Amino acid sequence: MLTKKITLLADSKEVRLADYRARIILLTEKLGGLNILEHPCEIQSICKEIVSLKNSLRTESCEPLRKSPPMHSKK
Q1: 3-state secondary structure the chain
Q2: pTM above 0.70?
Q3: Where are the domains of the chain?
Q4: Cα 20 off chain centre by
Q5: Which tens digit of pLDDT belongs to each residue from 10-68?
C-alpha cells in the first residue's frame, strides 16, 4: 500500500469520510504523474487502492449516523 492506513475507533464518521476523500485525491494525483509503460505495477496497485477506498467511502456514506441517547430534561 502506498499510504499508511490508520483508523482510530474514536474517529467520527465525518472524519473517516474526509480521510477517505483526502486519500483518494492524493492517490489520484500520484497516478496522474505515472507512465503506463514505466510503472504498470504501481499504477495497478494505486487503482486497486482507489477502488477499495471508494467502496469504503460508499459503505460509510450509506450507514446512518449514530445518535446519542436523548437527554432527559428535569421537570
Answers
A1: CCCCCCCCCCCCHHHHHHHHHHHHHHHHHHHHCCCCCCCHHHHHHHHHHHHHHHHHHHHHHHCCCCCCCCCCCCC
A2: no
A3: 14-61
A4: 2
A5: 578 888 889 999 999 999 999 999 999 999 999 999 999 999 999 988 888 886 655 54
